[in-house]
Structures
1.
Amino acid sequence: MNYSNTLEFAKEMDAKDPLNSFREKFYFPTFHKNEVVYFTGNSLGLQPKTVEGMIKEELDAWAKYGVEGHFLAERPWFSYHENLTEKAAKIVGALPVEVVITHSLTTNLHLLMVSFYQPKGKRTKILCEAKAFPSDQYALESQVKFHGLDLKENLVEVGPREGEHLINEEDILAKIEELGDELAMVMIGGVNYYTGQLFDMEAITKAGHAVGAKVGFDLAHAAGNINLKLHDWGVDFAAWCGYKYLNSSPGGVSGMFVHERHAYSPELPRFAGWWGYDKETRFQMEPGFNPMRGAEGWQLSNAPVLGMAAHLASLNIFDEAGMERIGEKRDALTAYLEFIIEDISERNAERGTFEIITPSDKSKRGAQLSILAHGQGKALFDALTEQGVIADWREPNVIRIAPAPLYNSFEDCYQFGKSLENAIQ
Ligand SMILES: *Cc1c(COP(=O)(O)O)cnc(C)c1O
């Protein structure tokens, strides 16, 4: 397609966009009374206008019924999480039995690793990506230490080759093979939060299984962004947060995936709580733990209904849009934004250039572009902010922007370009 860096072209693209009207379903922050160009849906998604009503329903039920709301509320709180399962499962390409919405991301990662990281004999190592998101690094380190194992020896990282920004996938697969029967678990971010690189989760899962390891993914930057097929890929476990591309309120409830093949496995070690107990007999409060079938068996606590209501509001929008259309728009929008940045970089080369470190191949990325600003520092980013662009700055000189397909427009991309050009001048 021939792109053009003009307002006219951007508006034309918006007019043709089948998801164009979804923008109206969200509140946009304003700056100097204008709507901002919001490109940080990968950090905190915008608020759907339906959230307030969904939460209000539960506040009203609480006022009206008190504790009886567990059974008398229109969506009884006892089983509230069940309202979210099917919609969340569609987003990550899973069977409903494989998914539960519960807890927060890092909590879920730990709960899953307690079950799926079982170092035994010489099979003790974890493979992860270098420069993983800090919370994941701490979680992995503490898991290794929890088993009394040496960190240096057992936490193996694959990073980019000398002088490169991205990780060569061949290096991950080669490392898995090399570690062989010493490898207990692979745990990688499906989309790297810093570079926006999307990994081939199917190939990594296959390679991990070939050497007898368990394979899990942190999908914080993938859920609601990438067209996932966790079930078909055979992934053992995964976790994601609800508040990035999934727009479900700051620190909101998050998701867990456990493959069907582990659906009923009371022998798997786990940190248990009453909400993971078989719901038919939960209130007999018998000693001894009999888990729910599937991912629900990893729940510890009864659901925080207000947070779940916010998430449900957002999942309803995803359900209406469908991941297929979201994926198509994601690719078109990201490609247009890439074109604009390259156009501006070329035309202003004497002031320093922009290098997009995110893969240019659309099958290797989602909705994020990470831009290295050569010859430009934080001042450039601050100038962008001053013009009403909400983006993300990472030291020493990377700007991360994410055009979220549900609510960002081609015009947003054009406006970003204008602000970028002003900022470098
Ligand atoms: C955002 C993010 C987190 C945040 O974890 P919380 O438990 O939700 O605070 C963790 N890991 C990755 C990869 C993330 O992108």
2.
Amino acid sequence: MTSITQRLKQIRSQIRDAELVYKRQPGSVLLLAVSKTKPAEDIAAAYHAGQRHFGENYLQEALRKQQELGAYDITWHFIGPIQSNKTKALATHFDWVHSVDSLKIATRLSEQRPAHLPPLNICLQVNISDEQSKSGITLAELPQLYEQIVRLPNLKLRGIMAIPAPQQDFEHQRQPYKTLYQAVAKLNRPELDTFSFGMTGDLKAAIAEGSTIVRIGTALFGERDYG
Ligand SMILES: *Cc1c(COP(=O)(O)O)cnc(C)c1O
């Protein structure tokens, strides 16, 4: 079996290669290791190989692992669907939340962010091509929500996150990211510096279209078992 250390090395080199090929600044794409359903030992293994940013989808599971890994200097990202009764814990225990999809959730996160912590980094999740999923705002809603959320004092609105419907073909993978990137560029807000684009299946297409954070689970930790 390939070890997490070896896989991490491979993914880092894929990211580097894509940065070169698509004329992205070297080191401009952050690797977020998505550790949902995986044990704390796997996170520790990646950590010892130099990985610092980890993404989780399920609050209770994430809080358990954070307890186990309390001594580690990890930057925690929440990337799962958000219920409003979970915002206090999210505001307290995470550095980033990628999946904000309403003014109500954003307002709660801002109000509940503890005063001793820096502003919470957030992304707005935009639903570009997946009609099945109810998560995410539409592109049409983005400009107005931006204006409302950017005023919230304890948040730092960094950019957008998207999970396009899966596509096999590379050009089809690129298309939704291109559309999203252009929509954000049109807002012309330099503080929007984050594009949370790309997973195991479309990392390269995402980097081609401006991703600054790729969220990689399967390629790093192996298939997930939800049993
Ligand atoms: C699970 C998940 C990922 C990781 O997906 P892989 O295909 O395993 O790399 C990325 N982003 C989100 C939002 C996820 O829920």
